[in-house]
Amino acid sequence: MPSVIERALQAALTDRFHFGQILIRNTNGSFVLSHRDDEVRTAPQTFRNAEEAVEIAKYDDAGNYRPLKTAPNLRHGWRLELATLDELRRALDYFYPGRLAVFAAWKNEQLRITPLRETLDRQSGMYRIAAKISDEQIDNVVGNFCRSDSGCLRTILWKRDQHSTIASTKLPPAKFDPLQDQTTVLDGPGSATPATAIPLLCQEPCNLLVAECRKVVKGESQLSDAIPNAFGTATGEK
Ligand code: SF4
């Protein structure tokens, strides 16, 4: 019997769809995955095992380790052929850990969303100091750290605090909209023809952002510097 995650994935399946930087082509129940920029290129490496996704996702094109799997630096030059929905689910979970489960919970209206201040307030040990970050510093660090073109492809669902303050005014409205494909801001050819997208959702600030907030408080980060609103007005309008 399909799991909740497989049911959500099955419901979202179309002939071709995007999940982050991956293009998935569905042919009679089997699947071909590639980097979305590689649709019209011949991939030098073809894999047929879902577990191969672990290695594909580990390093970027330059061979650098990818600590954040939703960063916009998935490597090119591979093709992954999978025979079943279960294999597809496993592979996508290796590429983007936890994101299908979060998507399924969101579709079922069961997703718990945690504000940044709540996440910071529950830190202990060396990360406790991160809670001292100012609102202005949050505005800048989130605006830099989470931006889709250079930081992370997740759609932010969380707020800055319990008062539903926007996470950062330095990010465009699309960054908070699950219906918007975050990869449209990236360089590269993308897919040859349009495809629907399953969003990578961010329901709670990640450990890397918490660590960056700590650096800001300790004066070790440049990301809290005021940044021009690269996306338009102070409210993030394009
Ligand atoms: S907080 Fe969310 S959107 Fe920001 S970098 Fe971490 S995972 Fe990405």
Key structural traits:
238 residues; alpha/beta; Gyrase A, domain 2; 2 domains; 6-stranded mixed beta sheet; 7 helices; disordered C terminus; binds iron/sulfur cluster
Overview of the structural elements:
With 238 residues, the protein is of the alpha/beta class. It has 2 domains: 104 residues, Gyrase A, domain 2 (2-Layer Sandwich); 102 residues, no CATH class. Helices cover 26% and strands 13% of the residues. It contains 7 helices and 8 strands. The strands form 2 sheets. A 6-stranded mixed β-sheet has the order 4-5-3-2-1-7. A two-stranded parallel sheet has the order 6-8. Helix 1 crosses helix 4 and helix 6 crosses helix 7. It is globular. It starts with a helix and ends in a 21-residue tail after the last helix. The relative contact order is 0.17. The C terminus is likely disordered. Bound molecules: iron/sulfur cluster (SF4). Iron/sulfur cluster binds next to helix 7.
